[in-house]
Amino acid sequence: MISFLGLCVQNFIQTLKYILGGNVKWKNVMSQAAMISYDSLPIALSIVFIAAVVIALQVSKQFLMTGAESYVGGFLAVALIRELAPGFAALAISARAGTAISAEIANMQVTSQVDAIKTLKVDPIGYYFAPRIISGAITVPMVVILAELFGILGGMIISYYAIDLHPNRYMSSVWLWLNTRDIYISILRGFVFGIIIPLVCATQGYKTSGGAKNVGISTTKAAIKTTVFLLMADLIITFLFYVC
């Protein structure tokens, strides 16, 4: 894992040089943005919505028993914005788009398409990595924001039907507990996760060798490594902004 992390950092630096050199084709960035975030939007929003509904079901009656039902919205909003929405959305994008990135680049590697790019004197790492990293960094925070809105909406709906909590009281506690700093940090999480997902998956795909069988193995490894690195990054961000 440590050697793979070093390889990711090396590829990221090389990609930054490629981007700063003005070699990025923005048409490719747009197509990758559609593949990474737009196509992953339904599953990401569904997961966060269901998670919010489940949490609201579990805590609403407990809050009602203690007379604190008005705070269900605030509690759920803080939980979603600080942790659940960015994490679940990133994992959903990783499962759908990240594995696709790894499989695509791994297939190019084993079929010698990467070697063909090298013969044209084009940096393959910059060519394959840059559009995916840029699109991930831009669009994943957007998915996170939408997921937070959907989660809060899901909690409001289930709280109304479960404990007859009026939407006005629910939203009042959301605004009472909500902190703009938490929103900024959640956007930062989305930005960092949007870089990690394509970087790790593309690196794993790029280092693939052998035949078609290894493409599947590399895709599985990409899914596992991306999950580990996302959780590590989540821990670091939480420690920096909520502990230090």
Q: Could you give the topology of this structure?
A:
Blueprint: H1 2-20, H2 26-38, H3 41-65, H4 72-110, H5 113-119, H6 124-163, H7 167-177, H8 180-206, H9 212-242
Helix pairs in contact: 1-6, 1-8, 2-6, 3-4, 3-6, 4-6, 4-7, 4-8, 4-9, 6-7, 6-8, 8-9
Walk me through this protein's architecture.
By secondary structure, the protein is mainly alpha-helical. The chain has one domain (2-242). The chain contains 9 helices and no strands. The chain has helices spanning 2-20, 26-38, 41-65, 72-110, 113-119, 124-163, 167-177, 180-206, 212-242. Helix 4 runs antiparallel to helix 6. The protein is elongated. The model has no long low-confidence stretch (mean pLDDT 88).
Keywords:
single chain, mainly alpha, elongated, 9 helices
| Mean of all residue-level pLDDT scores | 88
Low-confidence stretches: none
Number of contiguous helices: 9
Q: How many structural domains are formed by the residues?
A: 1
How many β strands by DSSP? 0
Proportion of strand residues: under 5%
Following the backbone from N to C, one meets helices and strands in this order, namely: HHHHHHHHH
Distance between the termini: 27 Å
Q: Characterize the main sheet.
A: none
| Rough outline | elongated
Give the proportion of residues in helices.
over 70%
Radius of gyration: 20 Å
Q: Which class do the helix and strand fractions yield?
A: mainly alpha
